Amino acid sequence: GNSVTQMEGPVTLSEEAFLTINCTYTATGYPSLFWYVQYPGEGLQLLLKATKADDKGSNKGFEATYRKETTSFHLEKGSVQVSDSAVYFCALTGNTGGFKTIFGAGTRLFVKA
Amino acid sequence: NAGVTQTPKFRILKIGQSMTLQCTQDMNHNYMYWYRQDPGMGLKLIYYSVGAGITDKGEVPNGYNVSRSTTEDFPLRLELAAPSQTSVYFCASSSDDRGGQPQHFGDGTRLSIL
Question: Best of A7, A37, A44 to disrupt the B interface by mutation (most B CBs within 10 Å)?
Answer without folding.
Answer: A44
